[in-house]
Amino acid sequence: MNSAFSLKTAFLVLSLCAWPLALFCQDTMSNGEQNAYQNSLHSTSHGLEFWYAKEHGGLERITGIPFTQLSCNNCHVRSCDTCHAKQVNGKTFYSTETAKSEAACERCHDDDNQKAGRLHPDSSDVDVHFARGMKCMTCHTSREIHGDGQMYDSVQSPGARDARCENCHQDLSRCPSSQVHHGKLDCNACHVRERPSCINCHFDTKVAEGKSVSLPLKDTLFLVNRDGVVTTAAMHSFIYQNKTLIVFAPAFSHNITKQGRKCGECHGTQAVLDMKKGSFRLAEWDKTQLKNRGGVLPVVDGYNWNLPFLNYDHGQWSPAEKAAPPLLNYSGNAKPITREQLEELATPR
Q1: pLDDT for residue 117
Q2: Residue 149 falls in which region: left (phi positive, over 0), alpha (psi -120 to 50) or beta
Q3: How many CB atoms lie within 10 A of CB 272?
């Protein structure tokens, strides 16, 4: 009896000792497990952090604030539920149908062109692809969305994106402009109607209130070099405690036209001629509103954009009297248009 009791007691003691160990091992295995999605840009939002960093010439140069302390750091898709969750009779189910809907994308990627394509497909201003009923997932892939296990620095990193014009439009020999430019001009440069840019992002307001305020540039399209071809770009300027920064980055807009630009819309324009002389003025602050010149604008290295910088207080803009000269950053692997390329653009075609 005593022997049996001792055996049971020993077994119980061993079981009690082993139970926490088993839990510890289970937690260690669970915490150590990783899936491809955890390294995806949707999960990490690493692109924002990468290009914000001072090491890459980003906004941190003028703010001195670590990215982890900004509200931008909250822009992640942490859970499958964000895109896949579907409510049926009060219960949650996962659905690929829900994730592939435009509404799932629009929650974060708030694209007016995308919405216009869904609401007004017959409008001549709608992206030609949306007008034909194409959706985000027609071009973008599940690998782009869920990741492939590799940690990419940003969507601009080689291999991060699968969506390319050439995936469908394979025979570019049918496009005269492609032949004329010897393959050195991205499709976007001719077929993107407009790429929205904004200036004077008031970062003091972003830090204090967590909201973004800026002023839009109208009817502009910037050109930069990237990976050996000329492509479209966006301009963003920032002000924080009177320190300023101008950023140019390659950018795509879901605003594609079937008919490309005419030669004269890029070559020999008054805007390009003024840039060559150094007299082009992109934007001016006219007491209560921003006025800007439009057009296709090459981003020439060293050009003095002479932008207005404004402060924002209680919903009102006012000129910043002591704004420092802006720093410059070519982000997303962009490179400026060369002087030789500017000469080509200044020649009428």
Answers
A1: 62
A2: left
A3: 23
pTM for the predicted model, two decimal places: 0.84
Cα pseudo-dihedral 71, 77, 79, 81, rounded to 10: 110
Which DSSP letter does residue 92 get? E
CB 58, CB 329: distance < 8 Å:
yes
Residue with tokens 């003691």: 13
Contact between residue 292 and residue 217 where contact means Cβ atoms under 8 Å apart? yes
Residue 244: CB atoms within 10 Å: 21
Angle, alpha carbons 197-82-59 (nearest 5°): 35
Give CA angle at 121 (120, 127), nearest 5°. Answer: 110
What is the per-residue pLDDT for 20? 40
Q: How many CB atoms lie within 10 A of CB 243?
A: 18
What pLDDT is recorded for position 15?
41
Q: How far apart are CA 344 and CA 341, in angstroms?
A: 5
Looking at residue 14, its pLDDT comes to: 35
Report the share of the chain in percent with pLDDT over 70: 87
Confidence at residue 116, expressed as pLDDT on a 0 to 100 scale: 66
d(CA 297, CA 223) in angstroms, rounded, equals 6
CA distances, 327 to each of 60, 71, 196, 238 (Å): 12, 23, 21, 10
Report residues of the chain scoring pLDDT below 70: 1-33, 111-121
pLDDT confidence of residue 275 = 95
Q: How many residues does the chain have?
A: 349
Q: Which of 333, 331, 329, 334 is nearest to 62 (CA)?
A: 329
| CA 89 and chain centroid, separation | 37
DSSP state of 211: -
Q: What angle do CA 328, 275, 246 make, to 5 degrees?
A: 15
Specify the pLDDT at position 119. Answer: 66
User: Roughly how many angstroms between the first and final C-alpha of the chain, as a whole number?
Assistant: 106
